[in-house]
Write a structure and sequence with these properties.
Layout: H1 2-7, E1 35-39, H2 49-62, E2 67-71, H3 76-88, E3 95-98, H4 105-109, E4 113-116, H5 125-132, E5 137-140, E6 152-155, H6 160-172, H7 174-187, H8 193-208, H9 221-235, H10 237-247
Parallel strand pairs: 1-2, 1-4, 2-3, 4-5, 5-6
Length: about 250
């Protein structure tokens, strides 16, 4: 969305994906469990679930009852690698591997927080879903994802110790956890399904009546450039290195 804003495109309209859950029918988490969830495909490069497993070896030192639920499917070799890492770190009683679920409601409701260990994200529906259930989300700070601007706790990229500290504080401070829950719920109001439907109606109406559709503004070209560079660093490190060399000439 930020790139779209920066280009000031005249014939392109940004409309967010609607929520997959109806907030009016959801019972939010009471945040009393010791479950941390991590949801998404198991992927070593982009989702980095192994980082979460490594952090759990530190988390259990603060509370041996803390649980990490890794929910999703992925490459069999990486799954085996993750399970071996759990064994090596002696935390088999604290990490659960749960296959992809069509109905994930209960896992969100039973969680106390969500981790996002991704190296890059776009419009993360997993983050949106977590916020619907009022979960505090702790993530590595990435430049560009929409939805990450409120109701989130962000630490420097790959700062494992920082994420552990932030998580321990949230799990041990109910006042903080409830405040993050309120922020999370407020931050998703703009993507309620009925609002997305209204945006589609406005676009279709404008097209049918041959009226212009004005793009939003708010992200500078410099910001858009920064976003692209941050993506390049992950997707193609060699090309990113070449870019840096050119910049230093």
């Amino acid at each position: 969305m930020q790139l779209w804003k920066a280009t000031n495109a005249k014939n392109v309209v940004y409309i967010p994906n609607p929520l997959t859950f109806d907030p009016n029918e959801i019972q939010v988490s009471n945040l009393t469990s010791k479950n941390i969830i991590l949801v998404g495909r198991l992927d070593k490069i982009f989702k980095q679930q192994h980082v979460a497993v490594e952090m759990m070896s530190q988390m259990v030192l603060t509370d041996p009852e803390i649980q990490l639920q890794i929910i999703g499917n992925g490459d069999a070799e990486y799954v085996s690698e993750l399970k071996q890492l759990v064994l090596d770190l002696n935390i088999t009683g604290n990490v659960q591997f749960i296959p992809f679920q069509k109905n994930i409601t209960q896992y969100y409701q039973d969680a106390a927080a969500m981790w996002v260990t991704s190296s890059m994200e776009g419009y993360s529906m997993v983050v949106a879903e977590a916020k619907v259930f009022g979960l505090p989300v702790i993530a590595f700070d990435l430049e560009y994802p929409l939805l990450w601007e409120a109701g989130m706790t962000k630490v420097d990229y790959m700062d494992r110790n920082g994420m552990v500290r932030a998580t321990v504080e949230i799990l041990s401070n109910r006042t903080l956890a409830l405040e993050l829950q309120r922020e999370a719920l407020r931050s998703i109001e703009d993507i309620y399904t009925h609002k997305t439907v209204q945006k589609w109606k406005r676009v279709i109406g404008a097209v049918m009546n041959n009226q212009p559709i004005t793009a939003e503004s708010g992200v500078s070209t410099e910001k858009a450039k920064k976003i692209l560079i941050s993506q390049l660093k992950v997707i193609n490190p060699d090309l990113f290195s070449l870019y840096e060399q050119i910049q230093n000439i």
